[in-house]
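Consider one such protein record:
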Amino acid sequence: MLGGKQDRRAKIWRVAAVFVATGALALSGCASGSNSGGGSGGGGESSTSSAPAEKVEAIANTVPEAIKSSGKLVIGVNIPYAPNEFKDPEGKIVGFDVDLMNAIAGTLGLTPEYREADFAKIIPSIQGGTFNVGMSSFTDSKEREQSVDFVTYFSAGTLWAQKPGAGIDPENACGKKVAVQATTVQETDELPARSKKCTDAGKPAIEIVPFDSQDAATNAVVLGQADAMSADSPVTLYAIKQTNGKLEQAGETFDSAPYGWPVAKGSPLAQSLLQALEHLIETGKYKEIAANWGLEAGMIDKPVINGAVS
């Protein structure tokens, strides 16, 4: 679950929670091939103070009968990946995605039930009927749309961060040390391509410094062990916010793509989720939730079913 696992198509943009501790940062991150095991995850309570969303009968009536009669929305999730989905000190599953899904479930008159699983097992579990929907910062891709349908709810890209005043330019970072979370699209695709441009031009290669977790990658920049970091834009924006002035953006967000909630191919649940999200956008609840996590930049105006750009 992280900044674009493995490649652009597998990108699931993940974020790391940052907490200042004895001069260093401790972030919650999630790397490709996440170490979360299967089973039921407790909690699902939001860390924000926003009131729960109320049931909207007309939208709730669109929910497939089997789900409606169960009274539950079973959600496959892979954690940690703050601020989207992670556990607070009490062990509750919290985050932007969680707050938003809680509001979606409330609108549909359902109780959200979060079940932790390996990231790679979520889509197969949706296909097999174990989960109703997935919630792990999935990038909606053409390849994935062959297996499941997606309801888009956010836009994310890649964004660099640096120490204030470092003057790092992602377009001209030859010879620089750039920290990344291992197996993310930034490590496997973005930085190797940038580095090749450098060496092809006779310039020093970019030194790609991978870490098992996003927290370690962020710490490396804060502590001066790397010149910059490259991660999914929500990851980077949240890290900047939580480090209280120790980091700043380097350049702008690029290669944006939609996050989506995967559901079984052809399931009418997609339309239910779409209508619920449209309702939350219209009422301002969606913006309120995004603002609580500092993620307004990734908000979308109109969700769609299967909105992959590549």
Remarks:
- Residues 1-49 have pLDDT under 50 and may be disordered.
- The first helix runs from residue 57 to 60.
- The two ends are 19 Å apart (CA to CA).
